[in-house]
Amino acid sequence: MVIEKRIRAELAALEAQAQIRRLEPVRGINLVSNDYLGLAADPRMRQAVLESVQAAPRMASTGSRLLSGHDEVWDALERDFARWIGAEAALYFTSGYAANLGLLSALLGPEDVVFSDSANHASLIDGMRLSKCRRVVFAHLDLGVLEDELRRHRASSGARFIVVESIFSMQGDRAPLGDLQGLAARYGAALIVDEAHATGVRGPNGRGCVAEAGLSSAVFATVHTCGKALAAAGAFLCGSESLRQFLINRARPFIFNTALPPYFAAQVAAGMRLASAAEAERARLHALSEFLRSELRAAGFDTAASDSQIVPVILGANDAALAFASHLQARGYGVRAIRPPSVPPGTARLRLSVTSQHSQSQLADFVAALCEIRMERSPAHAAP
Questions:
Q1: What are the backbone dihedrals phi and psi of residue 134, each rounded to the nearest 5 degrees, phi first?
Q2: What pLDDT is attached to residue 384?
Q3: Which of 148, 224, 296, 329 has its CA 20 to 30 A from that of 104?
Q4: Cα dihedral angle (216, 222, 227, 229), rounded to 10 degrees?
Q5: Is 249 an annotated catalytic residue?
């Protein structure tokens, strides 16, 4: 069949470019997990789910929330989450991808202009593409270029939005939200922020970078995923009550998606409650992240502009990233090589995720292992 030949040819091309991906469990010291506060193995989470399952009237939602899948527990959870984040309202989606896709594809039209950071997540990009809006991509966190583009499109008849992540998933750097909101206000645009890697990690009680910047009432919408620091799944879209009602009626990933079973709301609620109180874990996470960045940079490794718990080690070529990952896995470290198209060509890397469950000695040993591998691969270039 023609399609089978095409599939095999595509796979062969990916293999030749060292871009093929395979599903493998993480073994050893896990340095790729988004379980930033260590709640995934917390017995309190398990207990909350067990109690909810025991009390659940049914084990499946049986349909979308607009049909048979709605339950009052979701209304209560959305109110509680909005109150925690500091938003007027929240709407729960079954994944962060679905939330970003639903928000942007429903909200935007061909007459609207969106100014999108070049490092934005695929879910944001796909939502913009589906909307058929005019998309202006600006160089990563280059506010000078962004302002030029905002000025150039000032006369646009449609709405204007700036879309960014608060902590970028591949770079590990943080967006200057105050400056971005200032630009948005100056040029009549609205700011949308994906808080996926900040929820539970940054801000007062883990409310995220928007709350940390004091912008909860100024930002148009935020997206908060639950499958990372909150050790659950799904995501909340936070904004005004009118935006919530609009998305219930227009966001296709919400309208046509089967709801999660009611008992699962207890896991999300437990994650929110435990993350809110996890001040010691947050402090430890920030200290460990700073330690790892400092050790890597002192050893001569490129960690880009990371200033979060996500720490890239940029190695350049695909085969270099794969080789480092393979050697580290053999030494007992669970790491992954990140290659294009997840990152720009020539910037293949290891993407390290620090959690509060790591120890300083583990991270120091990891940096030492990286140095040893560099020496083995290229003795002449081993020193920083």
A1: -85, 115
A2: 43
A3: 148
A4: -30
A5: no
Least confident of 136-140, 242-246, 285-289, 373-377: 373-377
Among the listed residues 169, 257, 289, 353, the single catalytic one is: 169
For the chain, list the strands marked E by DSSP.
29-30, 89-93, 113-117, 134-138, 160-165, 190-194, 221-225, 235-239, 310-316, 333-334, 337-338, 348-353
Catalytic residue among 34, 52, 95, 306: 34
Put simply, whether the predicted model's pTM sits higher than 0.90 gets the answer yes
Active site residue 194: yes
Q: Quick check: is 169 catalytic?
A: yes
Indicate if 100 belongs to the active site.
no
Sign of CA dihedral 95, 97, 102, 103: positive
DSSP code, position 154: T
Q: From CA 251, how far away is CA 237, in angstroms rounded?
A: 11
121 included as an active-site residue: yes
Q: How many CB atoms lie under 10 A from the CB of residue 120?
A: 20
The one catalytic residue among 224, 228, 327, 358: 228
The answer to whether the CB of 81 falls within 8 A of the CB of 235 is no
Flag whether pLDDT at 324 surpasses 50: yes
Q: Considering 165, 173, 195, 295, which one is annotated as catalytic?
A: 165
Residue 10 annotated to the active site: no
State the catalytic residue, choosing from 35, 116, 197, 281: 197
Average pLDDT, the chain: 96
300 φ, ψ to 5°? 90, 15
Q: State pLDDT tens for residues 40-77.
A: 999 999 999 999 999 998 999 999 999 999 999 999 99
Query: Which of the residues 100, 117, 121, 318 is marked catalytic?
Result: 121
